[in-house]
Amino acid sequence: MVIGVTGANGFIGSSIIAGLNGLGHQLIGLVRPQSAIDPSTANLCEVRRTCYRDPAALRQALESVEVLCHCCGHLGGWSVQDSLLTAANVEVTRFVAQGAIEVGVRQMVQRVRAFQGRS
Questions:
Q1: What is the dihedral of CA 19, 25, 30, 35, to 10 degrees?
Q2: What would the pLDDT profile of 24-66 be if each residue is shown by its tens digit?
Q3: By residue range, what is the domain housing residue 50?
Q4: Nearest CA to 8 among 39, 23, 115?
Q5: Is 24 exposed, middle or buried (0-12, 13-18, 19+ CB in 10 A)?
Q6: Is 27 within the bounds of a domain?
Q7: Which of 30, 7, 8 is closest to 18 using CA atoms?
Q8: What is the tally of structural domains in the chain?
Q9: What residues form DSSP beta bridges with 27?
Q10: Does residue 45 contact residue 28 with C-beta atoms inside 8 Å?
Q11: How far apart are the first and last CA of the chain?
């Protein structure tokens, strides 16, 4: 199975790639063009750089992906503006989901954000 992971350079994405390593899947790590990716993660997958807001580039990056784990986003604290969180988490997810539909991704799993409230 061909499994794509957005945010492959992040904590959750890189952990998913490490966990899937050795199970016989072809792994594709998707990261933003300017993002660094740890060599230990890059060695476990094919790295595809894409702009998540560019539909054509995103479709190209998702080509051949059968299952997509969508892990990219912004995990901000209380000081982060709502508009940044919306752009990074809602709008990008919409672009990713639309691109996945257009290229025929069979399943998409999205990370769930957990946070602790103010004390």
A1: 50
A2: 999 999 999 999 999 999 999 999 999 999 999 999 999 999 9
A3: 2-110
A4: 39
A5: exposed
A6: yes
A7: 8
A8: 1
A9: 3
A10: yes
A11: 44
